[in-house]
Design brief:
By secondary structure, the protein is α+β, with helices and mostly antiparallel strands. The chain has helices at residues 12-21, 60-68, 82-91; strands at residues 2-8, 26-32, 37-44, 47-54, 71-78, 102-103, 109-113, 122-126. Strands 2-3-4-1-5-8-7-6 form an eight-stranded mixed sheet. Bound molecules: carboxymethyldethia coenzyme *A.
């Protein structure tokens, strides 16, 4: 199931205002130190949109913005078992970005599939 769509931005507050005018409210704003980002989550029914603002230049989101500009950063899919999903993709030769699950926003455990193996879109797996 699609869990959230993440958008990389230098100014989450400014982008949030646009969505608030559309009638959506920020549900949670959370710093995720392991990913060096502040994540702002807006609920859109069963789906969330997440604005990712880097907290430092060494953040992978800062690098993504410098290289690719602001905009779509990743699609996140909820999985029942992250270890099982990681095995499935690893066995198919699809590159995982971390050897082991990492802590993500909302207490989730996360990993990523390399965009080069996914049609140019970074995919997050979250449990
Ligand atoms: N979406 C699609 N493609 C992307 C991308 C993104 N967000 N970020 C980088 N890429 C592409 C690059 O354009 C490049 O493509 P080409 O080889 O065709 O030129 C390729 O991936 C490799 O890019 P790179 O510059 O060599 O590598 P980076 O140092 O930018 O790292 C990536 C890319 C995906 C490995 C890195 O961003 C990463 O480890 N991401 C996972 C962690 C993360 O994104 N965390 C964000 C917060 C998560 C959260 O809390 O929700």
């Amino acid at each position: 199931m699609l869990d959230h769509i993440a958008i990389a931005t230098r100014d989450a507050a400014a982008v949030r205002r646009v969505y608030e005018l559309l009638g959506f409210k920020a549900e949670r704003i959370e710093e995720v130190p392991s990913q060096k980002v502040t994540a702002t989550l807006l609920s859109m029914g069963g789906l969330h949109v997440e604005f990712l603002e880097p907290t430092g230049e060494e953040s992978s989101v800062a690098k993504a913005i410098a290289r690719r500009g602001e905009g779509l950063h990743h699609l996140a899919f909820a999985v029942a078992s992250l270890e099982q999903a990681m095995r499935l993709f690893r066995d198919q030769g699809i590159r995982l970005l971390y050897e082991t699950p990492q802590p993500g926003a909302g207490g989730k455990r996360i990993n990523f599939l390399h965009p080069g193996d996914c049609g140019g879109v970074l995919i997050e797996l979250c449990e």
